[in-house]
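Example record used in the benchmark description.
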Amino acid sequence: MNFVPRMNNRIGGYTVERYFHRRYWNGMAADLWDVTCAPGAGGFYSARDPRLFVALAADGGGDARFEMREVGGRMSARSVAPFISFIPAGMDLEAYSHGIRSVRHLDLHFDAETLERRFGEDVAPSVFEQPRLMLSEPDLFSLAELLAGECLTEEPLHDLYGDGLALALLIAVMKLPAPERRMRGKLAQWQLRRVTDFIEDNCLRTIRLDELATIAGLSACYFSHAFKATTGLPPHQWQMRARIRRVKERLAESRQPLAEIAAEMGFSDAAHLTRMFRRHVGSPPSVWRRDRAE
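Model output (structure tokens):
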């Protein structure tokens, strides 16, 4: 069964001129769009899956530009086409065009679980929690254009071609390093118990990997991979799950504002808490709290 992106958009001012059929690869879906833009076209975008947005070309005047900003957060960017943005799962985004008459853009959506499984231990999942807005590095666009061409053609090549292009573009955007050789092995039960108890007790602060490795009596490199081999999760995700449980408790027992809860629970701001909560729970904290109150 093909992966189907999950998005919730509230936008206006765009008219689709041409839509090429969606291409599916392993845990990925890509769309190529040609749209015309009314003045101030744009709106709100939200997705439960990470994605790349590639503005391939745009027609506009000398002061034409695009603008993206995280809803409730501090991150914002402006740029002319072409550019590429990586938007993490659960990141609510506002995007607008100014002085743009038409644009061709590529949307590439990823299933987070498939992505994590494919990269395995070679890439920390936290890498895909970091947004990268409006990158304008020329080397990226040769891959993006090849991928757009594969979406456009009526006779696509073998699935491995599109799959490889999509992964190559993601790796280039995220600047993922080459994997190193990994040592295999699992933690003993006493090691796992001590480490998980420590994480539970200290989940609201930053926990250094070498702290956990010392508790287990291992090197940081060996510990990191032994922990995932034992639990199926890297240490930082285990900690995030513990932190989300604390957030749930606070949401259920108080009417404390989300920004205050975020500060107490070790999140940078309410937007960061909302993004992580949605990723782990499936709904934003405000909705989860409301459903428990009913």
